[in-house]
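Figure 3 (text version): structure tokens given as input.
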């Protein structure tokens, strides 16, 4: 039993959060022998990053001038032949960077042929994750337990429709989510026409999707993740966060790649917010927190597990410094507009403290970066 004492619980006020067996057991007034003092800190659900290529973590910043085409033709192929030990080390680095930034759940888009070592690295990191793996690997790993679940990562509209149908059928036979990239207009309509859409599908980007197609996703209950920073930096077209909201959807957010984005969700929330302000939409800044938590969890089928501080959910929690001076109603907006990794004081995953008072408990980022330095040297040579 553990209690987070006296924090500003987002949406509640000053309160304690009681944790039992890794789950949130109550929000109110509690005492327990094991306590974390949250005086002056904001207590909020851990961030959910619903699309990240963790294996690219050693290449942070290397794609600042890369377009999507340049990425796909130049950098991505050089990463495709990584030995298993490098895939493992790179995935571990990415997962720990995520935890350090308060991301407690990540959907990791897998590296071809390396599903097992990736799942091992995610487990070693201590993060909650869906490992997005190839359909054949999903069969092998479908019974994964603990914090690591499996999703089928399908190449989507770049492949013939029959291949999409086969991937989705494999995932459905195993009771798993299918996740796929979409870009061009018509990609969603093609799947809809074939009767393949459903709430167990999760799409990423959708920059070229028409308003009608976004509505098709909403009607089908399918999830959509927008990765505003990588889409803008790679010139993929205008991110659809606002258009998906207009269609009645609740978009999720993802980092995608640290080639051109920071490793946290603050950047994604802020980019999405600023794009909406540019469109002339007076969306409340604080509402973007939902995209990076509850709506993200729901988009990848984990809405009953994480994404909020509701009693019964797993205790995936972030304690933020830097906002204790604000009246409660200004805190969520303040976090979205000005928050950053330096504010992430403590992080819990499944009730376990993985970052305490600004320091990672189980991992050393400096050592993890040193372990993959050769990956970057080789890929960028
Ligand atoms: Zn991607």
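Below: residues designed for each position.
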């Amino acid at each position: 039993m553990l209690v987070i004492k006296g924090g500003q619980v987002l949406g509640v006020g000053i309160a304690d959060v009681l944790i039992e067996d890794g789950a949130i057991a109550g929000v109110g007034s509690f005492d327990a022998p094991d306590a974390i003092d949250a005086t002056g800190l904001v207590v909020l659900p851990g961030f959910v990053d619903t699309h990240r290529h963790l294996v690219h973590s050693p290449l942070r910043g290397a794609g600042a001038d890369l377009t999507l085409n340049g990425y796909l033709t130049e950098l991505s192929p050089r990463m495709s032949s990584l030995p298993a030990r490098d895939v493992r080390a790179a995935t571990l680095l990415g997962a720990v960077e995520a935890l350090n930034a308060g991301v407690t759940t990540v959907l990791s888009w897998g590296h071809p042929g390396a599903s097992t070592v990736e799942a091992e690295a995610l487990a070693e990191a201590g993060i909650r994750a869906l490992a997005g793996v190839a359909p054949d690997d999903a069969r092998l790993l479908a019974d994964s337990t603990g914090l690591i679940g499996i999703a089928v990562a399908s190449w989507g509209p770049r492949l013939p429709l029959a291949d999409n149908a086969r991937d989705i059928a494999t995932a459905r036979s195993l009771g798993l989510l299918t996740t796929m990239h979409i870009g061009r207009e018509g990609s969603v309509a093609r799947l809809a026409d074939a009767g393949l859409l459903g709430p167990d599908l999760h799409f990423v980007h959708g920059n070229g999707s028409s308003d009608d197609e976004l509505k098709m996703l909403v009607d089908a209950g399918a999830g959509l993740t927008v990765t505003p920073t990588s889409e803008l930096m790679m010139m993929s077209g205008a991110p659809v966060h606002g258009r998906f909201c207009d269609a009645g959807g609740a978009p999720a957010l993802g980092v995608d790649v640290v080639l051109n984005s920071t490793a946290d969700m603050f950047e994604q929330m802020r980019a999405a917010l600023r794009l909406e302000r540019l469109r002339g939409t007076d969306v409340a800044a604080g509402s973007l927190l939902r995209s990076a938590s509850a709506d993200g969890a729901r988009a990848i089928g984990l809405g009953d597990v994480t994404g909020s501080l509701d009693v019964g959910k797993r205790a995936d929690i972030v304690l933020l410094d830097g906002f204790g001076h604000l009246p409660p109603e200004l805190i969520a907006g303040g976090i979205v507009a000005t928050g950053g990794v330096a504010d992430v004081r403590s992080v819990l995953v499944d009730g376990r403290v993985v970052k305490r008072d600004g320091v990672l408990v189980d991992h050393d980022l400096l050592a993890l970066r040193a372990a993959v330095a050769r990956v970057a040297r080789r890929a960028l040579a």
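The radius of gyration is 20 Å.
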